[in-house]
Amino acid sequence: MDTFTEGLKTNPVNAFLISLVVVFLTPILWTIVHQYVKVLRARGIPPGPAPLPVLGNLGEILSSPKRFDEWCLQKAKAYGGMFSFWMGDQLFVYVSSYEAVKEVLVTKDKEFASRPLMPERVALTLGPKSIFMSSYGEYWRQARKLSVLHLLSNKAVKTNASVRDEELNTLIGHLKEECKREGGIVEPREHIIRTNLNTMMLPLFGIRFPAPTEPGFNERREALYASIQESFRQMGDFDWGTVLPALAPVVNRDVRKTTAFRDRELELLIEEHRAAKEKAGASFVARDMVDVLLTIPETEDLTLKNLIYMLLDLLNAAVDTSGVSIEWTLAELTRRPEIRKRLQAELDSVIGRERPVQEGDIENLPYLRAVIKEHFRYRGVGPFPGPHLNEVETTVQGYRIPAKTQVMVHTRGLSRDPSVFSRADEFLPDRFLAEDVDITGKDLRVLPFGAGRRGCPGIVQGLAVVHLAVARIVQAFDFELIDGKDIDMEERNWGLQVSLRTPLKARFTPR
Ligand code: HEM
């Protein structure tokens, strides 16, 4: 017997410790080996950077000084407009070449219409049955149909035009107040987000969030407003719980706290709706989406709770997407006074300065439409639409795509490709006066709303809000850089979108 085994026999504490190490280490080592074998065996997939055991390419991505989309562009230079990489044992495929994007979003749209499992942060924020994150299937179909029918159809969007009109009047009022109070220096972000949230809260929940300077301001409602905003923002932070699930309860404690408060307040709001419905009896008339949902018979999937989460999902999908689009466009106009002045000349000649521009005017404002289109081509709400996933194995451009691969369509990569648009890296609205490109999913060169089955169902509402908000602000104000100092145009994750890292601040002068 050697001294090691002799030692074990005579020292039971050592033996216990070693058994403990073996019991805990073996499954970990087994998982590492199993995962790495899975990675190494993935033959026929698109080429890509070599993955490491456990982390895959995560270490390289997280330690890169570049933003994730820039890291992708750098790899695309080496591997082409389609390459693969790994985060842990999850395979990702990046596509930005026109042909590969077409195959994923058009030819094989149905095969790539699912979504990956949600990280805990997203699940807590959007709820377990979010339309955005639901797998392709019956629940997703029903929830999407319900929201289109009652909120997002052309007819429903038109019905809510008066809400947008009033909220935008309020927005201009707030900007004027701030302009007066702060000697002309205005930071529009908070006002824009509140306006967008109110244009959705009224048709969905029947309430709005008055600003602190408005009559009807109320601390409790403001706390709900803050928690909705905060939960959407927290969702964009990297979820370490996906890499280290054991740490999820600790690292996501902040999101749990925010969403618990938010959900409790929303449930109370729904209880108020229910009580009003019961009181009204047969004379009940639905005034908002919660009222409509209260009349739908519950099924196993379509429970009231899930439907309420669906509303939050719609809020999230609507508010910041339109909000960041408005702020980015204003930032471009602040840096480019010649574009703002041309827009003002168009508004002055078509509408004049007395009457505020209306949604019905947009079709007569070609330069406004070209500016908004250029924003969506140049920047959009982010470099990628939602993640797509195939439930069964398939191929793209002849490469094998194993089941449950996450496919990331780099829409911005495509719309900034110099072989797709000339002077692609410049903000030039005139290009869309020369060529009227569709941006609603039919022309793959500019895809701010995605395309195919998972494309955005809120396009009509989103475009109405962005056009009208930009037009109203440009009609009401001149705005310029403060003391000629350029704006910080760096991007930062904001929920599932990217916003300006530093909120836009400019010198505003009422016209
Ligand atoms: C400027 C405004 C908006 C932009 C740029 C935008 C963009 C997008 C994008 C890129 C996607 C993902 C598409 C994909 O994964 O392929 C999406 C999905 C979605 N959007 Fe929008 N959106 C906007 C406004 C809205 C509005 C106003 C609503 C509703 C009120 C809305 C509701 C949704 C929903 C529910 C989804 C999930 C669709 C699904 O997974 O089936 N969006 N949006």
Automatic annotation (TrEMBL):
Which PROSITE patterns does the record cross-reference, listed alphabetically? CYTOCHROME_P450
Q: Which residues bind heme?
A: 456
Q: Name one Pfam family in it.
A: p450
Domain of life per record? Eukaryota
Cofactors, names only:
heme
Classification via Gene3D superfamilies? Cytochrome P450 (1.10.630.10)
| Keywords in alphabetical order | Heme, Iron, Membrane, Metal-binding, Monooxygenase, Oxidoreductase, Transmembrane, Transmembrane helix
Q: Which residue ranges does UniProt annotate as crossing the membrane?
A: 12-33
SUPFAM superfamilies (UniProt xref): Cytochrome P450 (SSF48264)
Single GO MF descriptor = oxidoreductase activity, acting on paired donors, with incorporation or reduction of molecular oxygen
Regarding protein family, the annotation reads: Belongs to the cytochrome P450 family.
PANTHER family found in the cross-reference section: CYTOCHROME P450 98A9, CYTOCHROME P450 FAMILY 1 SUBFAMILY A POLYPEPTIDE 1
List the protein's name: Cytochrome P450
User: What is the species of this protein?
Assistant: Klebsormidium nitens
Q: What is the lineage of its organism?
A: Eukaryota, Viridiplantae, Streptophyta, Klebsormidiophyceae, Klebsormidiales
